[in-house]
Amino acid sequence: MSHNRANIIKTALITAAVFLYPSCALAEASPGQLNLTLKGGVELVLENNLDITIERVSPQIASSRVQSQRGAFDTDLFGSFKREDSRKPLNASSSVAAGGLNSMKSENYSLDAGLSGKTALGTEFTLEVKDDWSANTLNRFTDQYASFTGVRITQPLLKGFGPGSNERQLNIARKNREISIYKLKQKIMETVARYGLAHWDLLRVKEELGVRTESQRLAEALVEINRKKYEAGASSLLEVTQARAAAASRRDDALVAKKAVREKENAIKLLISNDVYELRDREIVPSPESPLPKTAAGLDESVAKAIAVRPDYLETKAELQKNRIEIRYASSQRFPRVDLEASYGFNGLGTSLSDSFRGIDSNPDWSLGIVFRYPLGNNTATGDLGAARFSADQALLNLKKLEQTIIMNLDAAIKDLKADAERVREARTTVGLTGEALAAEEKKLAAGRSTTYNVLKVQEDLAKALSNEVTAVADYGKALITYCMERGTLLEDLGISLAGDYGEN
Hints:
Blueprint: H1 2-20, E1 33-36, H2 38-48, H3 50-70, E2 76-89, H4 92-97, E3 103-118, E4 124-136, E5 144-156, H5 163-166, H6 168-231, H7 237-272, E6 283-286, H8 299-309, H9 311-332, E7 337-350, H10 353-357, E8 364-373, H11 379-446, H12 452-487, H13 490-493
Parallel strand pairs: 1-6
Antiparallel strand pairs: 2-3, 3-4, 4-5, 5-7, 7-8
Helix pairs in contact: 1-6, 1-11, 1-12, 2-6, 3-6, 6-7, 6-9, 6-12, 8-11, 9-11, 11-12
């Protein structure tokens, strides 16, 4: 039995070594296995996870909408050419004036081309070149060309003036793109954290399976020893029955542990692959190798870092900034509409197209005026401004609430990390002491001063102690993941860079 004790103590020491020393390497995996370090699994998550792939499209959509809003300041090139033919009957007096004609036929042509657009100041402009020519019965269809070349400008002086009013939609689109990038980064970090927790869960259940399998082997070995002793008349049938019952119970425990391993493997396969069918029969072999820090920084330092880098916090700040854009716009809409309208150009006339533009600068044509408009009561602008201010107040409260949540979650994460580290130390102490107790009980059984029941009980105590150690170490690893996640540095601590195209332009 001392050989069995050595085996189970060896199992405990291997378990401790695997979790304590992340630099240790696992054996080469067989073709049916997939070795995964924490960082290696994260890289597969970033490459293949469908949730992340779906979210990556959002910044590209938002960037396209930014481009769309820029179109409000595109300069339009326009042009048209029209012909109109008409025949009008003449009344008696008109007929006499026309030399006895009963109707008059006319042909009219119109050519119009130019540029129009709008600036961020709200200035609307049109640069236009027009030429109309007509021929009719009265002038014996001799063409006459009338031309105009000039510019028209409308400039808001109060409502609608300046970038705050005219670039509002563009600025909101830019903020929405920024928000979509923060959402993507948050989704990536949350998915990586889910993988990290699942990674440690799989490590835990695999080690638990090893403990249960070894416990089953010890019980089966005790069955064989008691059977031989019973055949030799040195033991009772009760001793054999107790050992067989324990072996059967531990076989059931091992089967439950195998099921848990399959469930945890499937959870990881869903996170690391976009085609789980290819991985359906592959065993996931997780490694405890991890670049994460083994201790936490102080609460003040952790909170300051979180507020500086956490995507969800930066997203909430961007929402507040978007509300302030709306406030500035809504404030400007309370002013009356006062627009300066001006035009300046030249008229020309001739018997040909080129002739109508010759000497055109001798016939200037200009106008200048003010247009005023103000809704009595101004309820729309007042209501929009109130709604924008309330929305900003709400966004500020959301930011404050998130700050409080960050502080509380980080405080809990730091304390959990310290408590789990203590649990690991205590669990290892318990494993050592229980292993010594098992060795002593086995010696007493060999000397006839103990019973199978007592040995089985201490074996179960050691298996429980080993399970507690495995759980404590896994919880410590998960606590590190949670701390880095709450601090907002999980990807940075894993050495993962998100340098990539977020659709910015």
